[in-house]
Amino acid sequence: MKGQAHRSIDDREFRRDLRKNATDAERRLWQRLRGGQLAGVKFRRQHPFDGYVLDFVSLEKRLIVELDGGQHLDSARDRVRDCRLMSAGFRVLRFWNNDVLEQTDAVVEAIWRKLGESDPSPPLPSP
To answer: What is the pTM of this model?
Structure first.
């Protein structure tokens, strides 16, 4: 029980810090993902996973949406990160922040298409 209380405090601080540092692109995409545009698909915003902070993740659909606003300047490091996430059973979709801000509808449509694709990877083991 004591460990759970400590974890919830850490989680609250984590979420508060990420909210404070969120970009306009993250806020806009989150509004669209929450706004019923992708009915029936639940996304989590800024979810910690295995040493990474994922911008948006649907655990049910095993889809990660990453926004590149300057933190992923090294494409080789992005490939390593993507391979590691894909080996854990996730699909990764990446957009530039400018794409989200200037072409929000097209970004949401691309996410919708990816969600509709059949996923050949096996289901993730239960935690």
So the answer is: 0.71
Beta strand segments in the chain, E: 44-49, 52-58, 63-68, 91-96
- Cβ contacts of 15 within 8 Å, gap of 6 or more: 46
Burial state string for 27-61 with b = 16 or more CB within 10 A and e = fewer than 16:
eebbebbeeebbeeeebebbbeeeeeebbbbbeeb
Helix (H) or strand (E) holding 11: helix 2-20
Question: Among candidates 58, 28, 26, which has minimal Cα distance to 41?
Answer: 58
Q: Which two tokens stand for residue 34?
A: 């929450």
* CA atoms within 13 A of residue 82's CA, in its CB half-sphere: 14
pLDDT tens string 43-86? 988 888 877 888 899 998 999 998 885 555 667 877 888 888 99
Provide the residue count of the chain: 127
